[in-house]
């Protein structure tokens, strides 16, 4: 039996920030170049204001103020994007099906996600399948974030499981590398089919 630790954004839940920005602010993100530039300024590789929001060290007012300064957008434009994020985080059907198969096979499920507190609460209240997870860590609630080693150590201690008995799945190479450096097997996630194939090669699923 293995302990499977899942990232959430772009793994369990949809996360396509470029598409989100183009949908909410078409006047600003009107072609590929403008969309990519806006995404870069808005999220700053999940640093900047959004990184602090993920980490739980600022709340919505400070987030909007910081994003206005970073992007040059109006406050109402920034607020529209922030307000659209919960709906963007829709479950990815094939991943949810994979979670069910892993659970049925007797593996324990956990999550480790960079997620601000309001979005963490939204996901918990909106999706019944989160009850399949034994436990989880959201960055905004512990004021640590991936790929910092400290958040992985915190998660392992909270879950009460040894690193060598875990497999971590995440779509960001830096997070996968951080997990491996701590002795955690890890899968770089691109989609559910690829992840399931790798888990089968690892003997997790028959």
* Mean residue pLDDT: 97
How much helical structure, as a percent, in the residues?
A: 40-55%
For CATH, the homologous superfamily of the largest domain is named as HAD superfamily/HAD-like
Would you state the CATH class of the largest domain?
Alpha Beta
Question: Rg from C-alpha positions?
Answer: 17 Å
Number of helices: 11
Low-confidence runs of at least 5 consecutive residues: none
CATH architecture of the largest domain: 3-Layer(aba) Sandwich
- Strand residue percentage: 5-15%
CATH fold description of the largest domain: Rossmann fold
Q: Give helix and strand order, one letter per element, not per position.
A: EHHHHHHEHEHHEHEH
Protein name: HAD-superfamily hydrolase, subfamily IA, variant 3
Keywords: Hydrolase
Organism: Leptothrix cholodnii (strain ATCC 51168 / LMG 8142 / SP-6) (Leptothrix discophora (strain SP-6))
Pfam families: Hydrolase
Describe the structure.
With 206 residues, this protein is of the alpha/beta class. It has two domains: 3-14 and 90-201, HAD superfamily/HAD-like (Rossmann fold, 3-Layer(aba) Sandwich); 17-88, no CATH class. The protein is 53% helix and 11% strand. It is built from eleven helices and five strands. It has helices at residues 17-24, 32-43, 48-55, 60-71, 75-88, 93-104, 117-126, 139-142, 149-159, 173-181, 192-201, and strands spanning 3-6, 108-113, 135-138, 166-170, 185-188. A five-stranded parallel β-sheet has the order 3-2-1-4-5, with helices on both faces. Helix 7 (117-126) links the parallel strand 2 (108-113) and strand 3. Helix 3 (48-55) runs antiparallel to helix 4 (60-71) and helix 4 (60-71) packs across helix 5 (75-88). It is globular, with a radius of gyration of 17 Å.
């Amino acid at each position: 039996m293995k302990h499977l630790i899942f990232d959430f954004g772009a793994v369990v839940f949809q996360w396509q920030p470029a598409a989100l920005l183009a949908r909410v602010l078409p006047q600003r993100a009107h072609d590929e170049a403008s969309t990519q530039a806006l995404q870069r300024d808005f999220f700053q590789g999940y640093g900047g204001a959004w990184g602090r929001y993920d980490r739980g060290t600022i709340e919505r007012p400070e987030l909007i103020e910081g994003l206005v300064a970073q992007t040059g957008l109006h406050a109402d434009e920034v607020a529209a994007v922030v307000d659209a994020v919960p709906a963007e985080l829709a479950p990815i059907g094939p991943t949810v099906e994979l979670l069910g198969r892993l659970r049925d096979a007797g593996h324990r499920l956990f999550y480790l996600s960079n997620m601000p507190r309001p979005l963490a609460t939204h996901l918990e209240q909106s999706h019944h399948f989160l009850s399949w997870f034994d436990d989880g860590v959201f960055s905004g609630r512990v004021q640590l974030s991936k790929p910092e080693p400290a958040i992985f150590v915190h998660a392992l201690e909270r879950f009460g499981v040894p690193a060598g008995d875990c497999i971590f799945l995440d779509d960001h190479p830096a997070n996968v590398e951080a997990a491996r450096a701590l002795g955690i097997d890890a899968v770089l996630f691109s989609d559910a089919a690829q992840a399931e194939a790798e888990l089968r090669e690892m003997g997790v699923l028959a």
